[in-house]
Amino acid sequence: MFAANPRQSTRSRNYFNPIINLPALLFDYTIDSKTQLNVKAYSLLGQRNMVIANPNLGTSGDTINMSLGSYSARQINRDYYKSYTIDARMIRKYNLFGHESALSGGVKYSNISTDRKQSGTGTTGTDFDLTLTGDYGINLLFKTINYGAFLENIFRITNKLSVTPGIRYDYLKSTLNGTEHQVYNDYRPVSLSTSRNILLGGIGTQYKITENIEMYGNYSQAYRPILYSNLIIGSSTAVIDPNLKDASGFNADFGFRGTVKNILNFDVSGYELYYGNRIGNITLTDSIGKPYTFTTNAGNALTKGVEAFVEVDLLNFEKGHANSGLSLFSSYAYNNANYLNGKVGTVDLTRKILEDVPQFVSRSGIHCTVKNISATLYYSITGASWSDANNTVATKTNPSVGYVPSYNIMDFALGYKFLDKYNIRVGVNNLTDNKYFTRRTETLVYLGKGVLPGDGRSVYVTLGAKL
């Protein structure tokens, strides 16, 4: 179906209606010349509404039910989001060893909830209608409370050398309550409560080789708790390991960055990311040979790579271009990602390529400014990747796993500033209307097994004002 027409739709009665509001309040206060306070309060208030006809494979058409003389009732899925966060940070500069150092610290509080109502029975109509004619099959309330605090200090040892150690503590409490429909008139209660105390540390260092070029290195611990999405089955062919564990690891990098005569700006680094107890999807077969996806702690993984960014300002070669600019830029990341070990049943994941990690990502472009007009052309290439931990080849009967081929995208944006306070921006995404897909899926949220095609050519207009 993707090869025939990646833009086709076999569901004329389907609707997707997201409503997202992101209010925020920012407060900055300079207490004195060496002390600053920053407070952010923000929230996410929204909904995600879906009306789904015949939530099965895309090859099954949405047709008139002859016994009813009409279409079948559609499925209603609704999520309600409420998220409140306050983040306060303070930085204090002071003299140490004859150089200015800085201590920063902060606290954070978040209260997040998702009210998930899915698999409800809707109407048999054809328009966007969230009217419910039967009970929801899934009615769950997710809540997470997070308290966090951090401290870090920049120690400037000499004019060239600085070291920045840091530490962070988080308390997470997550609860899940509600019901899930199992069989006819059987609504099973669901309840889960977990809490975690997480302490992470890291350290970074910088050394100035010249006034404009420096060498840097960083090491930080990392932690990823089990997510709600890891615990909720999204497909009849998915199985979740009841003994899932949180993942943890570390990230380290080393590189060089700087500028050369205000013409060349660069940043080149190598990195290593260790991912212990990584949660992954493994393709297995049941006793009758039917494939299914098993979500579990697949194993320990290691990703090594190189990242590079270069920007060249062409007009700096000449004089008299204060209101104009022309620059070329390019960023490139190469990833070598593999499982160090891992075995699930008879499946050995050792040296398998990590799923959902492209082999490389390249983004380049050209940016031009002439007085109040600016234009940017972007070109990006994303390398190929695998969709499951054991690198299973896709088949017609199991298209939810397999290879995701490399793809490229070109975007264009044009901006204009006027009356000092206003701006307008017009852009075209996927300028050449390339046909590609970014991932494979089997969840019913996306209407069955298959691939998720990328967006076709689209145009946007943005108006802005600064008063």
Descriptors for this entry?
Maltoporin, Chain A, single chain, mainly beta, 467 residues, 1 helix, 19-stranded mixed sheet, 1% helix, two-stranded antiparallel ribbon
Instruction: List the helices and strands in order.
Output: EEEEEEEEEHEEEEEEEEEEEEEEEE
Task: Tell me the radius of gyration.
Answer: 26 Å
CATH architecture descriptor name: Beta Barrel
Query: What is the CATH class?
Result: Mainly Beta
Structural class: mainly beta
Strand percentage lies at over 45%
Net shape: globular
**What is the name of the CATH superfamily?**
TonB-dependent receptor, beta-barrel domain
How many strands appear in the DSSP assignment? 25
Taken together, the total number of domains comes to 1
Ends apart, CA distance between termini: 50 Å
Q: What's the mean pLDDT score?
A: 89
Most strands sheet: 19 strands, mixed
The stretches of 5 or more residues where confidence is low (pLDDT under 50) are none
Helix share bin: under 10%
CATH topology grouping: Maltoporin, Chain A
Q: What is the helix tally?
A: 1
Structural commentary:
The protein has 467 residues and is mainly β. The chain has a single domain (15-465), classed as Maltoporin, Chain A. 1% of the residues lie in helices and 65% in strands. The strands form 4 sheets. It has a 19-stranded mixed sheet that branches. The two termini are 50 Å apart. The model has no long low-confidence stretch (mean pLDDT 89).
